[in-house]
Amino acid sequence: MHMADALLSPTVGATMWLASGAALAVGARRVRVAGDDRLVPLMGVLGAFVFAAQMINFAIPATGSSGHLGGGLLLSILLGPHAALIVIASVLTVQALFFADGGLLALGANIFNLGVLPCFVAYPLLYRPIAGDGASPSRVAVGAVVAAVVGLQLGALGVVLQTVASGVSSLPFSTFLLLMLPIHLAIGLVEGLATVAIVLFIRRARPDLLAPGGTPSSRATLQPLLAALGVAAVVTGGALSWFASTQPDGLEWSIERAAGSAELAAPEAGVHGMLARVQQALSFLPDYSLPKAAHAAEAETNEEPAWPDIDGGTSLAGVVGGAVTLALVWGLALLLKRWRR
Amino acid sequence: MSRIDAALRDLRSLDALAVRDTPLTRLDARAKVVITLAFIVVVVSFDRYAVAALLPLAAYPVVLAVLGDVPAAPLVRKLLLAAPFAVLVGMFNPLLDRTPMLAFGEATVAGGWVSFASILVRFALTVGASLVLVAGTGMHALCAALAQLGVPQVLTAQLLFLFRYAFVLGAEAARMATARELRSGGRALALSAYGPLAGHLLLRAFERAQRVHLAMVARGFDGELRTLRAQRWSSGDTAFVLGWCAFFVLARAVDLPQALGRLLLGVSP
Fold it and tell me: pTM for this one?
């Protein structure tokens, strides 16, 4: 479920970072404004709880598999959505840094999928209306399961959209969606059950912890979600529309491939565009890493049969050069190691 | 050993590497954070079919790991453990994209295999770089650097607290899990028992938070966490950042392995 750096394009990664960053900034301000100094250690310790509890697996009845807690929804119920988002973000950060779950660029996307969506969509729009004031255990249970399932479905949809928009994977949108949603339907149900089990236990053992007003900053607002979506929309509408024409991302890429390349004629802007321009200016062998552009150019000059258009010399040079490069890096490491001693 | 113990040991061992005095740990944490982010952006900005062109960038994590004396085995183990999602998604590329891309005499390689290889290389590079960042910096210096770079204190304090109490609550969770396993006769944990087990852990977490808060207030806590800032930006840090940036720009702009291969094989452009 954790999005990975390897599947992201810089544009999508940066957009998701800006969106999550906006939501986190609003969340952080709300927590600070709440001004409750009990909250600092409480959030830290509950983050550690989620971290530890995610590793306690329980058996799923009638199947051989096991499940564990997700965390976003439970934290929202205990702490309110603003503090919950910050706690989830910290858990995801430690997982990215120490366990290589996702990655640093993908962290923005992961905070959005697993933090912003459950805390600011599933919790206020589903759990709160269904569970009401928490007086009825069955309503709490139904609310938690529904919110967990819908929250995780949205998260899975987020992963699919981010992957397809990045265009590193060849999976088409519909196929990937059909793979992801059923799997995450099952995972969401299990997460919902785990959340219900804990909430109902706390409700019996320490009802004061769940009472309205008993938890700090429990009032739900849509502000962080709107901030995140607003930033994402502005970035997507502004920067991404430029990028889309220079960088054959996802759908764009397949359209271009079907219709022939229009890549070189398109306007270029931003970091990626600049990097690509620098590469074009300096590259004396542009046909290796930009096969489509070269293909278009060659098709114009040679009027050869357009496809497949591959060059044995380029392939072999790439493999030999790559192997020699790796050997050089290895040699550099050995030299450095010797020098350090 | 339980899963929780193993995870805690991983957490501790990676952080402990940064305590030692190496050329890598002596660098300012801000320099390492900034250059690691730049590295990741450069890696993912390559064309989706770039494989050989990405390889010179392997110099960055490898050189840093050597400078920081970071052992390779745990890094590789973590890489393999984290790989499934990227590998699973990438595995569809060879099935979906069958356009020939490389040719070796008569044999051709489909574009899907090339882009799959690219995903694997990207994965190894980005994950390797972030693991080396942690191993060469440590959680405390990393959080201090993030705060200095302008990340809100609510977030950096949260990271530090989480990291501190992950060990405490993790050890408690591991003890509870072991106690249950010893009494369960090998049965898996049922959902009906999971609620009370995790719930009790949560109650202990609440109580601990209350005690921690009292202890902090007794020591003058007023809502702000104050940290010592030992690290100073030096000219060495500037050279480190500029040097690697220049290398990244070169590697991004020029396909070094391709040029090298052509040179060695004598293929004309």
Answer: 0.82
pLDDT of residue B129: 94
The pLDDT confidence band at residue B212, using thresholds 50, 70 and 90, is: confident
Nearest to A48 among B133, B169, B196 (CB): B169
Tens digits of residue pLDDT in B159-185: 988 998 898 888 899 898 888 888 888
Q: Name chain B contacts of A100, Cβ cutoff 8 Å.
A: 78-79, 81-82, 127, 130-131
Pairing of strands B100-104, B107-110: antiparallel
Angstroms from B127 CA to nearest CA on chain A: 6
Give the span between the Cα atoms of A288 and B49, in whole angstroms: 9
Res A157 pLDDT > 90: yes
Q: Of B3, B66, B253, which has the smallest distance from its Cβ to A279's Cβ? A: B253
> Are A80 and A63 spatial neighbours (Cβ–Cβ below 8 Å)?
no
Short-list B74, B190, B202, B216, CA closest to A51:
B202
Burial of residue A4 (number of CB atoms within 10 Å: 0-12, 13-18, 19+): buried
Q: Tokens representing A190?
A: 């299990």
Residue A67 carries which side chain, given as an amino acid letter? Answer: G
List CB contacts of B238: < 8 A, sequence separation 6 or more. Answer: B31
Identify the closest residue of chain A to B22 by CA–CA distance: A340
Pairing between β-strand A58-59 and β-strand B107-110 as defined by DSSP bridges: unpaired
Q: What is the predicted pLDDT for the residue at B42?
A: 93
Q: What are phi and psi of B76, to 5 degrees?
A: -65, -40
Q: What is the pLDDT of residue B34?
A: 94
Identify the three-state secondary structure at position B220: coil
Percent of chain A past pLDDT 90, that is, above it, reads 25
What interface predicted TM-score (ipTM) does this complex get? 0.90
Q: Which amino acid is at B213?
A: H
* Most A CBs within 10 Å, among B24, B40, B202, to test the A interface: B202
Please tell me which of the candidates B42, B170, B212 has its beta carbon nearest to residue A51. B170
HSE value, Cβ hemisphere, 13 Å, CA-based, for B190: 6
Helix (H, G, I), strand (E, B) or coil at B107: strand
